[in-house]
Amino acid sequence: MRNEVKANARGRQGGRSLRLMLAAGAALALAGATNGCAPRSAGPGASPPAATAQKLNVLFIIADDQNSRLGTYGAPVRTPNIDRLASQGVRFDRAYTQFPICGPSRASFLTGLRPNTIGIGAVFERFRCTLPDAVTMPQYFRQNGYYVARVGKVFHQGVPKDIGTSGPDDPQSWDQVVNPRGVDKDVEDKVHNLTPGIPGLGRALAWLDHDAPDGDFTDGKVADAAIDQLKQHGDKPFFLAVGFYRPHVPEITPKKYFADYPFASVKLANETPESLSKVMPVAANSDLMNLGMTESQQRQMIAAYSASSSFIDAQVGRVLKQLRDQGLDKNTVVVFIGDHGFMLGEHGQWEKSLLWEEAVRVPMIIRAPGLLRDRSARQIVEMLDLYPTLVQLAGLPPKTDIEGTSLKPLLLDTARRDWDNTAYSQILGGRSIRTDRWRYTEWEGGKLGRQLYDHDADPFEHRNLADDPRYAAIVKELSGRLPPGPVEKRGKQTLVDPQTPKPPLGRYPEPVGCEHLDRLTE
Q: Phi-psi region for residue 312, left (φ > 0), alpha (ψ -120 to 50) or beta?
């Protein structure tokens, strides 16, 4: 069934996107300043129908830039609360983002639409510019009688610049929003910046261990606000989205979380001079391997990222404890995700904006009342699948105009074999497909290069088989399965090299409205 649904979605994608974009064209003239543009009306959900007491609640937790380096995924990172959540539900071992940058990824899984359906003209993330009447996941719950609130970063916010503000939020999705701001915003000038050539702290590899207690940090305040929301609104059906800001750089974290990660004991990525020499320039985010950092600096950054992940885990634990203390865990679906992967030296690359496994694979844990506990699902799933999953689990009317597929069958049986093991990810100039065995990537339709990796034999993607004639049939098949539609130019590297401060792709002035649709934000 899933195979059939996805095949139909791929077949519809090009024509459907064009029709939706043309239909939205007239509305752009009316656009204001909501998420870059305003919808044609206040949007559905302003006057929700009466709620019933039998509905399942949803607690939707997002950690910003959190990859799958968590204890439950076998990583040497202390995350006992997230590990416990996984033991109470289903951990998806092979879940993938549709676009490894915060804004486009969140726009995709919160609308249930692929980036190309949202429209390249809206730089993928400003969905109200091309689809002003789209109904987001929280908005759909709001339409169906839920109290819907956001704490912290859910839709896109620039980090750290938008901390404490709504950023380019989507107001019609929420009944209430809370934008915490903590001590980390006041000490940004004190960070250890390991890549000073990268302008701004939103992409710089920088860290700081600070003496303030957890509750003084922005993410400690996010947990506080989420707990308050549960206390105030736990007596009615709710959809509560809780967006933590770390481990997004700069890693400004309470000092105590660094204790488990002494720099000298941190292991570097499994790379050699030979493996690094084979990295295609088009698949890299810099002219310099490891952005010119020494091995000591790389260890510092991995330790700081790990410490931030442990800090976020502690805050997740506080929210889950409140849910349990109020007895709400018995009728609440809990989701924990990162918005995309994050590279920590694999292939000499750092951060996101890439199409390697570590950049597009995400943590995804779902705990649903009455469904499986302590199971892992090896099937390949997409973040796009979250919207229809939560709609089905909550017993809401099916949403027929979104492109994901409900994961409820896997929450009932993780051993299912009748699953379409296919995920699609993209970045500027690049398109990638992940199957049960293969990852295949094309750059500008193959004009700038191709990559093929056999994950059965090469899980770290070190041997590119795309030009080996023995795999020509595999390349042809996988190329034919990539979604149709235009592919934009790849452009230059996505990060500035420390010794060469030049403006990279993706670093443009922040758009005010829809007049700069060719500009991709951080």
A: alpha
Alpha carbon distance 522, 513 (integer Å): 16
Give the pairing of strands 176-178 and 430-435. Answer: unpaired
Amino acid at 78: R
Please report the pLDDT score of residue 515 as a whole number. 62
Indicate the average pLDDT of the chain: 87
As given in the structure block, the two tokens for residue 304 are 């700081």
Residue 102 falls in the annotated catalytic set: yes
pLDDT band at 122 (very low <50, low <70, confident <90, very high): confident
Q: What DSSP state is assigned to residue 513?
A: S
How much is the average pLDDT of 323-348?
Answer: 98
Beta strand 343-344 pairing with 176-178: unpaired
With contact defined as beta carbons under 8 Å apart, do 226 and 240 qualify? yes
Nearest to 482 by CA among 438, 520, 517, 518: 438
Q: Which residues contact 494 (CB under 8 A, 6 or more apart)?
A: 285, 286, 353, 354, 428, 504, 505, 506
The pTM of this model reads 0.88
Does 514 qualify as catalytic in the annotation?
no
Q: Specify the long-range contacts of residues 225-230, CB closer than 8 Å, at least 24 apart.
A: 225/151, 225/152, 225/178, 225/180, 226/151, 226/319, 226/322, 227/318, 227/319, 227/322, 229/149, 229/151, 229/176, 229/178, 230/319, 230/322, 230/323, 230/326, 230/328
R_g over Cα of the chain: 22
And the tokens for 260?
């488990």
418 versus 54: the higher-pLDDT residue is: 418
The active-site residue out of 37, 129, 156, 514 is 156
> Which residue among 37, 102, 129, 514 is the active-site one?
102
